[in-house]
Amino acid sequence: MKQKNNAGHRIVIVGGGAGGLELATRLGRSLGKRGRAQVTLVDASLTHIWKPLLHEVAAGTLDSGEDALDYLSQAQRHHFRFQYGRMIGLDRGNKAIRLAPFKDAEGRDVVPERNLEYDTLVMAVGSVSNHFNTPGAAEHCLYLDDSAQAERFQQLLVKAFLRAQVQETAIDESQLSVAIVGGGATGVELAAELRNAARKAVGYGLDRINPETDLRLTVIEAADRVLPALSPRLSIKTRKQLDGLGVSVLTGSKVTEVTDKGMHLESGEFIPADMRVWSAGVKGPAWLSELDGLETTSGNMLVANEFLQTTRDENIYAMGDCASVTLPGQDKPLPPRAQTASQQATYLNKSIGQRLRGQQPSAFTYKDYGSLISLSEDHAVGRLMGGVFGSLMLEGLLARAAYNMLYRKHLAAVHGLFRMLILISLRGLFKRTRPRLKLH
Fold first, then answer.
1. Under CATH, to which class is 129-282 assigned?
2. What is the CATH number of domain 10-127+284-356?
3. What pTM was estimated for this model as a whole?
4. Segment 353-374, tens digit of pLDDT
5. Domain extents for the chain?
């Protein structure tokens, strides 16, 4: 078959999360470097933080300013382009997306509103928390959908610690209390990491705070167990660890209203909380349901087929958390997890290249490699699946090492193996000189 000349083919990827960034990097190496296509990544932020690490950013145990990846630098090194912007519209007839303007603090345009044309469009904008229209949740809860939200929580936590350290009155029961709605991975990991952060804060002179009793942590889950999407055995192990950390876990509990003082439960119980985090459920950003007739679910996720193409436009793909993909023979969509997005990035790098060469790609297949839940610097629980593992439960340092390997795999995908090894080595050295907790 005669190979097509696609040097002018424009591939636009909207969303620089784990999947979108990996795909842009892979396509830049495979197509952009060889002049076979123009690859452009669009994101509303200038930097990237791996989303599974946002609970560490929120707790202050990870400094996003030092660990973030710069999109412009990444684009220059890996032969793609970066456009700073937030997508606000789609014109399928003219094959163009609309990007909103960005203004500075004085209201002046930094980047103007503009159109960006494409031949192939990949939507990888991720998901946002779903508060299910619970009264007061939008106004009185914090979210961990991106690094800016995680940093906002971290600032509130630091101020609460500093206030408690210098006040003359006793620390009351709601002052350093955090209620987390949702016992999934984000909620569970955040609760554990906050206990870890409180213990470190004492070591930096905030010794009036008792990290075990003054920081009151509550996880509220509507299902009958934490981690309801994962195996019961993993849920039991995780619950045991949370109990050991002094985290109050309320299962079978539905939040009916959120106020600036705490959470009202369906049972009539009230959970006082100075800081309130919503991490229960995900949905696509609302504007996805308004994209020029593309099919979406009731949760605003773009419906895509087994080739990850949206059902009403074969030139528009959807991947990661913003996509609803039900593979043939399956009765439910693929799970919104980092490993799903990473596998889809690998697949689309290959399939988009095949389409440009006039070949028919095979359908996407998903392999579940298990789940790992981080509970501290040196402890995690999880289950590995596939290959030599079969189905292997892990706990403690071994599970934590496996969890760290997931992040290193992501770094290898976006930096290459050699650069990943250098970064990990440098971070290991810097860890000895950096503060163990961000307190500013």
1. alpha beta
2. 3.50.50.60
3. 0.91
4. 999 999 999 999 999 988 889 9
5. 10-127+284-356, 129-282, 370-430
